Amino acid sequence: MSPPRLTGALRSFSNVSKQEDLTQDIYDLKTKCLKRQKIFAQDGLTWQKIVQFFTQHLEKNDQPAATHELKNILQAAKQIVSTDHGQDTIESAGVFLFKTFYNKDQIGHEETRAIKQMFGPFPASAAEASCAAVGRLVAQIGESQVDAFIQTQSSLKTVNRSSIFGRNIAFSFDTYVLDAQDPLPWSEETDTEQDLDFHSFLNNHVGERKAGSDRDDAYSAEELERRNADSSILRQEVEKYLDEGNMVSSSAEELSTSLFEMLASTRSDDELQNELFEFLGPQGFEMISKLLQRRSDIVDSLVSVPLDSRPHFTSGMRDESAKPTYGCQVTIHSEQEKQMMKIYRKEEKKERKREKRGDEGDTCENAFHFDPKDLRLQREQALLTARRSPVLGRHREYERIRYPHVYDSHAEAIKTSAFVGGSKMLLPEGIRRENNKMYEEVEIPPNEPMPIGFEEKPVHISELDEIGQVVFKGMKRLNRIQSIVFETAYNTNENLLICAPTGAGKTNIAMLTILHEIRQHLQPGGVIRKDQFKIVYVAPMKALAAEMTNYFSKRLEPLGIAVKELTGDMQLTKGEILRTQMLVTTPEKWDVVTRKSVGDVALSQIVRLLILDEVHLLHEDRGPVLESLVARTLRQVESTQSMIRILGLSATLPNYLDVASFLHVNPCIGLFYFDGRFRPVPLGQSFVGVKTTNKVQQLHDMEEVCYEKVLKQIKAGHQVMVFVHARNSTVRTAMSLIEMAKNRGELSFFQVDQGPDYGQCEKQVQRSRNKQVREIFPDGFGIHHAGMLRQDRTLVEHMFSRGYMKVLVCTATLAWGVNLPAHAVIIKGTNIYDAKRGALVDLGILDVMQIFGRAGRPQFDKYGEGTIITTHDKLSHYLTLLTQQNPIESQFQQSLADNLNAEIALGSVTNVDEAVRWLSYTYLYVRMRANPLAYGISHKAYQMDPQLELYRKELVVESGRKLDKARMIRFDERTGYFASTDLGRTASHFYIKYNTIETFNELFSAQKTEADILSIVSKAEEFEQVKVRDEELEELENLLCNFCELPATGGVENGYGKINILLQTYIGRGEVDSFSLISDLSYVAQNAARIVRALFEIALRKRWPAMTYRLLNLCKVIDKRLWGWAHPLRQFGTLPPSVLSRMEERNLTVDKLKDMGKDEIGHMLHHVNIGLKVKQCVHQIPAILMESVIQPITRTVLRVRLSITPDFRWNDQVHGSVGEPWWLWVEDPINDHIYHSEYFLLHKKQVVSGEPQQVVFTIPIFEPMPSQYYIRAVSDRWLGSEAVCIINFQHLILPERHPPHTELLDLQPLPVTALGNREYESLYKFTHFNPIQTQIFHTLYHTDTNVLLGAPTGSGKTIAAEMAIFRVFNKYPTSKVVYIAPLKALVRERIEDWKIRIEEKLGRKVVELTGDVTPDMRAIAQADLIVTTPEKWDGVSRSWQNRSYVQKVAILIIDEIHLLGEDRGPVLEVIVSRTNFISSHTSKKVRVVGLSTALANARDLADWLGIGQVGLFNFRPSVRPVPLEVHIQGFPGQHYCPRMASMNKPAFQAIRTHSPAKPVLIFVSSRRQTRLTALDLIAFLATEDDPKQWLHQDEREMDDIIGTIRESNLKLTLAFGIGMHHAGLHERDRKTVEELFVNCKIQVLIATSTLAWGVNFPAHLVIVKGTEYYDGKTRRYVDYPITDVLQMMGRAGRPQFDDQGKAVILVHDIKKDFYKKFLYEPFPVESSLLSVLSDHLNAEIAAGTVTSKQDAMDYITWTYFFRRLVMNPSYYNLDDISHETINKYLSNLVERSLRDLECSYCMEIQEDEQTIEPLTYGRISSYYYLKHQTIRMFKERLKPELPVQELLAILAHTKTHLLMQAHFSRAQLPCSDYGTDTKTVLDNAIRICQAMLDVVANEGWLVSALSICNLVQMIIQARWLHDSSLLTLPHFQKQDLYVFRRWSAKGVRGGGGYQGPIEELPELMAACNGKEDNFTSMVKEVLQPNQIYQQHKHSNKFQFSTH
Hints:
Blueprint: H1 8-11, H2 29-42, H3 47-57, H4 63-81, H5 87-101, H6 109-119, H7 124-141, H8 143-159, H9 198-212, H10 221-243, H11 252-263, H12 269-280, H13 285-293, H14 295-303, H15 328-331, H16 335-357, H17 372-385, E1 406-407, H18 409-415, E2 432-435, E3 439-444, H19 466-471, H20 480-491, E4 496-499, H21 506-520, E5 522-523, E6 527-528, E7 534-538, H22 542-556, E8 563-566, H23 574-579, E9 582-585, H24 587-595, H25 601-605, E10 607-612, H26 623-640, E11 645-650, H27 656-662, E12 671-674, E13 683-690, H28 695-715, E14 720-723, H29 727-744, H30 747-750, H31 758-766, H32 771-776, E15 781-784, H33 790-802, E16 807-810, H34 813-817, E17 824-828, E18 831-834, E19 839-842, H35 845-852, E20 864-871, H36 872-882, H37 896-906, H38 912-919, H39 923-930, H40 939-944, H41 949-965, E21 969-972, E22 977-980, H42 982-989, H43 994-1003, H44 1010-1018, H45 1033-1043, H46 1055-1067, H47 1075-1102, H48 1105-1120, H49 1137-1146, H50 1150-1155, H51 1158-1164, H52 1170-1180, E23 1184-1192, E24 1197-1206, H53 1212-1215, E25 1219-1228, E26 1233-1243, H54 1244-1249, ...
Parallel strand pairs: 1-12, 4-11, 4-12, 7-9, 7-10, 8-9, 10-11, 13-20, 14-16, 14-17, 15-16, 17-20, 30-35, 30-36, 31-33, 31-34, 32-33, 34-35, 37-44, 38-40, 38-41, 39-40, 41-44
Antiparallel strand pairs: 2-3, 3-13, 5-6, 18-19, 21-22, 23-24, 24-27, 25-26, 25-28, 28-29, 42-43, 45-46
Helix pairs in contact: 4-5, 4-7, 10-11, 10-14, 12-13, 20-21, 24-26, 27-39, 28-29, 37-41, 37-42, 38-41, 42-47, 44-46, 45-46, 46-47, 47-48, 51-52, 56-57, 60-62, 63-75, 65-66, 73-76, 74-76
């Protein structure tokens, strides 16, 4: 295609380096403003002027009266026009009334008509009132003066009637309308578009030509004259045309400019003729012909100025010829050049500024420069390809690529040559325009539908699979759009973006993707795995969310998929969310849910499909929320490598490619764009702009236009919907339409043809409660808005759809909520009140589209019609919006700080780089790159930094600083790290804006009252936009008087005062009348509740008790809408108000009511029957009883055990079905401080059963001791429901101060040779002992004193133990050494070490004695060293009299003796006490050596162990061989699992910071946690450059190792260098992991806490992830013993490799202080013997050591418990430590314990009340190590003839029972944890069964005894009694037994005489007859040879037993 021919004249001017002519007069902003003010001054009569007039002309003292009258006039005007249109309207109505009445005495007929014509029907009273008021006013001044004033003002008016409207764009096809992103010409001061100034242009030319005429080649004078004449023809014509009164809007310059542009263009005369005609209208006919005749002259005269006569500039710019200011620039200006010009001008301006700053004289050499030749070439190229491709990529070149699914007629139009560049406002062809005095109308006809393509075929529902058919039941086939998208949506996992017109069926596309997701989770057999996926549908409005929930739940119900709505209105509990597969939610709500990540990790992690409806909202205020959601989701996809599909649905929008790239949609697969041609019913749109600027006139004109439009449709036989924007406007509009119809006599058109059931319908309507509906129905009108009753709305919808209403006037809620189409819709007025902004705003594009989407009824109409009636200045706005020409931009920048804070609080952004990366996932980033200028990025910056990294960093750092200043995060600029703070987390969770937090920081303090709090809340940024309108003042005054209980600061005049008043009105349940206040009220109520909650959290975190209490109450006050002093029973809706008021009068508090009977209450309230109801309600108010026990641990720390007993009746209607939430805190009333706070739930179960809940926590105490603390529990939901418990310190005795630690002396390290024995020396690899070992060597190796060694973990205590052992070997070779370690794992470790070093190298016998390994007596008797656990040794040494080897023990070494304080402590205590007891009886001293970590109260332990000054070594925790650095971090969150999940990212970072390449140990509390933590760490690694950085081994080798691993998760984690270690692993797997870790092949090991004790694997860094574990007994999470935490930390730092160790401890934030204290100062050890005293007494009684009560007392004095009782009496509930008190306390204790034992049949007390006699049961209990309660149960439940089943029931509770049965059935257990549990069960079961057997034998019951024997056999053989005994053979399972059954003796020689099939063992014996080959022949198909050999050996053993 050849380029259009250009005249040479035009072509010669494409030198773009256009200079600005500085001589011209620059229009700057100020002059414009002045000019505009001048115009306004001329602008007729306004209300302000009237007010001004009266204030000027009256005396001071008359003014108030006048002001009052003026107010009255406004009041009347308000009643006439109503408040929905804003104050301006009311004022201009006031002016109208004033003008109407100022010279009248009363209202005549004429006035009434004038008002009625202007405003429609009006209340007469208002008109009379205003008339009277005007009369009184005029009387004050005198009529003549007023008359003169009004005349002068009105005369002004007429001249200038429409001066204001020249600012609007006149639509023409090719005037250069400014680009949407260009700055408007009047908005940049110096950057004036010269093109608009025709005058100066001409002057330039003419003037400069004269200047040049003295040259040789200058034009001759006549020629110049002629040219001037030509150019002035244009000017004259234009002026003449304008004088005739055409085109009032334009000035001569503008018009000349436009015409010149047209004449100079390349069109032919014919084309021009048409265009000019359209442009100038019929009046300009002569002018057109004249201009066209002289066209070339005119153009030439202006353009072809000879080269050298062009203007020269000498203003310090470079002297280079410049083209005329004007000319070719307009004609064919490619987009590109226009952009260049703009940039060029900008840059030049900058340069000029820079010049001025620099050296004024310099010429500007480096000015921006374009090469004209290049540009000309480029332009030709551009014309050739007919493509717009600006260099700047402002509009991406969408057209280059043809995407398969994009049907975009606009883009295609752009490609064709007919498209003319300059113009941006591209209106479709066939457009009709009408322009008259009253309004301008643009009408766009409906599109032709898109022709069906040949590949397109509709998808029939019958072709889908079963699921599809079920869901789309009742539909025949999918529509066109759905069919085109079908393949991609239904059969792939691609992300999709679908842009299609409203009403095109996008919802079903969403349904297709939902079905695809469901099909992926379909098991064979048609079961859907519902727990594996969640689908989230994000809809922009609550109304829409509700509609979608209904639609999807109906459709998906047959599949059993639960769909729930999750919005501000519809909260779901956690359980409900878990049971739901699909959630429909709003962007904000989903943002909040995912922000809490922690709370709902489970939720957001299994989202598999995210559907975003109406994505084009990105450029509205709520856009940023969508951006942060998508960015979060995309990052989650990348970090967790999980598949989350995103489906974006949107209306048609121009830059769909940007949105596609933002949603990560592949444009060739997942992008579908359907333009208007795909609407199910094509839409014709018309836009009407009413021209007048007078507000009242506007309203009147709009009514007028609206009526015309309605009438036109009605005449054509269509129904119409008229949309207005306020509830009461519906009635007004309907009334005024009816009024107009009456006046014009056209009412008959509106009346309905009465069908058969019309009468029926009429009756229904007359029954309606709504007066207006009844009144207007007969005229064929209806109204509909959200304020009507549900049934009335349904009625109206029904009538309209039946056709009994021709016109329905409604608000936009109808378009959103109900699908009710009409042929035509009319939007009347586009101003809508927005509560959030507190002002009238333009109707959003979303609403307009939704409303237009209701036009055209799919089955009946060929097309629909949408009309929008707006003011003339908004016309272009809506035109561009609806013809989609503005690319949608991002609004993310304004809420960047808030969103950044949310990500930091979530933990997904932890430093600047991550934040920069996070920004790259936003739409902001996509648009910043596409359109940098709009986001303030200069072209140069963009070229330098095309990825915008620096710019993003700048944004992030700036936001980071802001947040840091507000204390919402801690931002370390040096390292770029962000750390979240409590304040920031609170802000994120409660969705509080940054500015609000700033306000809080400034105003919030601990001393504020309720009134202050309300005023702080009302100043929050969330309410910033709410304004006070004059018309509300009166009503607000009323509300202030009637409902405000607290003073409202700010009063009615201020915005925040208004918020305060509204909030208090809401609480007081006040009624509000005016529409704007109603919507403000609900806005305030919703937000205030959230903000007060946030303040409550902040106060709680700041630990201000009074404030916290106040705020929590205020939260409830707002939730319940009851003031705190109202009666608590008001919270029940069931009680009548009269009764409640009476209770308040009589002051009947809840407590009083609880004590009264129901009849008494009835009498008191004069309402006999109400008593029962009141009584029920009183008992349903949640109440609790609290009891506390305090135990001092040290002088500064108290442990509080709180038992909370519910004291109310549960009722599901009132309390729900889960639990009642409570807050609990401990406050110090004197210092006003909270020492501890937590949140707990009272579960329904607990309330119903009345069982108490235990809460244990520690709090600090200070000396001098305070008199008391309060524990306060306050219900989170109920007013008036709280409890207080006082902790009294009167009788508290603090424990003794602890003696100092042993100092580590500065000794010379001792060489190993000091042992003096070569054998011993050879056991050590080192040459010298470490300092601690050196200091204790002498005492241990050369003396026999008892020793207590307290030293930190890792300081070589085991070697100390070996010194003591060697001493025994040297001195007492025949004696035994007993080494007691607390865990089996530790015993194993010692055995493995010592078997080699002591048994093999020294030849001493080492024996293990634990529950797993019980050697025979001989082995024990011969052993030199017995390694055992406390329980086992206790069991053995109980009967020490008759076990000689117990008496041969010379030394007892107890490792980790500080465990005395834990739950297994009593056993250690008993062992030591017994040892001391034994040595006192056998007078043979047993040396005791205790090893422990550093202790606080070592002296007490030493005294108890009988150690003097010599044997006590208690070093400080700090004398570790490797120094340790500890970091403690607190994490918020009530729930355990989410809190653990939130620790993963910090754990990952700790590894990165502290130990990037050295080994790391992570301790977690459960096996499940090892797995979850490992998987999360892998996810974080995945985002790194080197995801396998923790694997320090060749990957191939690793793969081989992984091949041998059984556990599937472990296979995965090992590949990343992460090991897992817990008891549930297979032995071999565990060994492999240990090997790998010890040899540093894997860097990270995640282990359960047992590893800390069991295996000595030190690491450089230890992370303790969470310090509580789940305790199965009490079914809740309890803290690790502090010793465990110390032990874990002790694993940090490897003595050989590290110069320091690191420990990072991640704890629940409320425990942080506690750990801070005790990790550095050692923890005192208390005794826990009390709880199990009776069992230990029983053992001594059975053994015969205790025979009387006195013995028992003595026995107790041997214990450690007795020592501590004296040292820390309060801990054990002892009041004082006088002799008598202690005696009394102990004898009570002994009495109680003995009584318990007596009840358990274990012993009896003789007549003398002193002597004690042991009984058989006591002996059984002691021998089998059972608790006395168990024996009591056996005695009571065992009966003479019990079968096995019942025995099992006695033996075990549910879980144990199931595990045993699984064991008998050899069932496959679902997870390895059960295996470990089964092992524990079986370990104990046999012991317990033997005890049962003894009990039964003692009673002499044979049958039961046999049953028990059977049970024991079942346990040992792992089979049911009735199973075949063949199962006892090794390797045999049930399925293998067939080989024996089918065997028969035929053909076997020497079959031993047995013939038949083999069923049991004896038969097998007989058949094999001892021959191995017989056996082999039977089993060779099921077993391997080596197994057969084992089998045969095994079955031979039976030979003996069977013979």
